[in-house]
Amino acid sequence: MKPDCRGMGLPISSCNFSTLKTNMLEWIRKRRCHTVMTMSFPMLAPYQQDADYHDAIDHSEVVLPDGMAVVWMSRWCGDPIRERLSGPDFFELFSQTASMYQMRYCLLGSTPEVLKAMRLRLLNEYPGITVSASISPPFGDWEEQVDRELVTAVNNSHADILWVGITAPRQEVWLHRQRNQLTVPVAVAIGAAFDFFAGTKKRAPNWMRRCGMEWLYRIMQEPLRMLPRYLRSLPTAVKILISCRRSFPGQKREP
Question: How would you classify residue 188: left for phi > 0, otherwise alpha for psi between -120 and 50, otherwise beta?
């Protein structure tokens, strides 16, 4: 399964959760590493400007629509994404299946405190899951030796799924560079989902998520970090939308 080539020129997959779950269960039976990544509005500019991130996204088996903005953009371009499927939502949804199948998780990212809180919640709410490793990587740039140590720790966990919660685009670039060395069959980059699941960051209320306003809540929480990221991607979004209308004026395309 490769990302769809959406009308807006972004390789965002339009599969629903049921289809993705079926594919992941099939991948887990294999030993080649398959990657699942997400695309949100703040990552539009990096996708156009960062060659390493662009390459990572283009070579991922699945790119989830993480945010209503990209869903709305796809509708404007006449090639609508069926539904939003954010990283935090996907982690919890799939954990229900993982608990039933008694899967093994490896958690890579964040701090020891966040990882401990995640393990406790997984134990309480999804008791069928075994967290075979939880790895808090060092801050700052990593040397090749650190990369090798992280890959070894992940492989030694013998996990069915590697969940990576660092920051975008760093997590995607790292996964893409290391995927040939990783023996875990599925690796998923979900970023802030670690903090949300652990409860160290509060997620937007359900009503804000339903009406597509989670982005505003995140900006209100962390204005100095999140607002510049959204503003940097605004010109890219405008260019995409203008290009869509010029390419397909008044044309409706099937999803």
Answer: beta
For the four alpha carbons of 23, 25, 31 and 36, in that order, the dihedral sign comes to: positive
Question: Residue 92, Cα to own-chain centre: how many angstroms?
Answer: 13
What values do phi and psi take at 188, rounded to 5?
A: -125, 125
Question: What is the amino acid identity at position 23?
Answer: N
pLDDT for 252: 47
For residues 3 and 250, what is the distance between their CA atoms, to the nearest angstrom?
25
Residue 200's Cβ-count burial label (10 Å; 0-12, 13-18, 19+) is: middle
Per the CB < 8 A criterion, the answer to whether 176 and 55 are in contact is: yes
Angle at 134 between CA 204 and CA 219, to 5 degrees: 20
Sign of CA dihedral 255, 10, 167, 28: positive
**Predicted pLDDT at 89:** 94
Q: pLDDT for 101-116, tens place per residue? A: 999 999 999 999 999 9
Structure confidence at residue 182 (pLDDT)? 97
Given a contact cutoff of 8 angstroms between Cβ atoms, the answer to whether 65 and 81 are in contact is yes
Mean local confidence (pLDDT), 217-227: 93
- Higher local confidence (pLDDT), 25 or 243: 25
Question: Which residue would you say has higher pLDDT here, 155 or 247?
Answer: 155
In sequence order, what are the residues at sequence separation of 6 or more whose Cβ sits closer than 8 angstroms to the Cβ of residue 76? 8, 241, 244, 245
Backbone angles phi, psi at 16, to 5 degrees: -90, 175
The answer to whether the beta carbons of residues 38 and 86 sit under 8 Å apart is yes
Domain ranges of the chain: 17-247
